[in-house]
Amino acid sequence: MDNRAIGIFDSGLGGLTCVAEMKRAAPAEDIIYFGDTARVPYGTRSRETILEYAAQDIAFAASKDVKVIIAACGTVSSALGDTIPDNGIPFFGVVHPAAQAAARATRNGMIGITGTPATIRSGAYERAIARISPDIRCIPTACPLFVPMVENGITDPDDVVVQSMVERYLEGIRSSGADTLILGCTHYPHLNEAIQRYMGDDVTLISSGAAAAMAAIEHLKANDGLAGRECGTVRCFTTDTPDMFRENAHRFIGGVDLTVEKVSVDTLSDLTRGRT
Ligand code: DGL
């Protein structure tokens, strides 16, 4: 048994889809969540910048005495590829767990992949799927406007803006006949209803954040690392204002009690320079 917290981070609010799954599947766990809301989005930035931010995010999570770290961010996970941080803390990204879940789910061997421009450019999901099953055909599509829509609460499936963006980005995947769709950015499950409606009920949506949460739980189970208490806490840190974070987080994981503290971007940079 291990009562230390699980560290989960993302560029913003998307990783809360991972927190929600963690709360559902392992409610006893304490969670430390970091959302870099002052610098979101990551997905339209260069790989160098994403890796620099990722190193800071990981250093911050590691500084909180966590037992496992989840990069609940498709953009960071795909930029890191197979590179594992060398801090000795078990580390999970979203790419491999989501690729595995999608490969298990597909019946016709065709998987649509959505993600930020950086994620799709990296080809990380295709590589992960090819390793599991080289015969699966992947149809990747970048959806650059989904993240700003989600961060601004534009997710209503009846909203014409939402419907037209979903159609614009997913038309190609829908017409390809793919029966499984990876939501390769952790923000996208907030658009689940609109996406499912457009793709049809026969298409299985894979939430990359949820898949990563399940992979971390499996790891903890196998290593006798789950917490032994009734109900865990969720302590959040944000680089923008806590009030704004709280308000937005409430929209996404309404039923979950959480506390929010501010951490400055300077503190993050100091961590990777070894100053704190
Ligand atoms: N939630 C993130 C992802 O999974 C990042 C979105 C962004 O910052 O562009 O890719």
What does this 3D model show about the protein?
It is a single chain. The two termini are 30 Å apart. 45% of the residues lie in helices and 16% in strands. The mean pLDDT is 95. The chain is built from twelve helices and ten strands. Helix 11 (242-252) links the parallel strand 9 (234-238) and strand 10. It has a six-stranded parallel sheet, sandwiched between helices. A four-stranded parallel sheet has the order 6-5-7-8, sandwiched between helices. With 276 residues, it is an alpha/beta fold. The protein has two domains: 6-93 and 210-272, Rossmann fold; 95-208, Rossmann fold (3-Layer(aba) Sandwich). Helix 1 crosses helix 10. 48% of the residues are buried. The chain has helices spanning 16-25, 47-62, 74-80, 95-105, 117-122, 124-132, 146-151, 160-176, 192-199, 208-222, 242-252, 265-272; strands at 6-10, 31-35, 68-71, 91-92, 110-115, 137-142, 180-183, 204-207, 234-238, 259-262. The structure holds D-glutamic acid. D-glutamic acid is lined by residues 10-12, 14, 40-43, 73-75, 116, 119, 147, 185-187.
Topology:
Layout: E1 6-10, H1 16-25, E2 31-35, H2 47-62, E3 68-71, H3 74-80, E4 91-92, H4 95-105, E5 110-115, H5 117-122, H6 124-132, E6 137-142, H7 146-151, H8 160-176, E7 180-183, H9 192-199, E8 204-207, H10 208-222, E9 234-238, H11 242-252, E10 259-262, H12 265-272
Parallel strand pairs: 1-2, 1-3, 2-9, 3-4, 5-6, 5-7, 7-8, 9-10
The structure holds D-glutamic acid (DGL).
* Number of helical stretches of at least 4 residues: 12
Low-confidence blocks of residues: none
CATH third-level topology of the largest domain: Rossmann fold
Structural class designation: alpha/beta
Helical percentage: 40-55%
| Shape type | globular
- Order of strands side by side in the largest beta sheet? 4-3-1-2-9-10
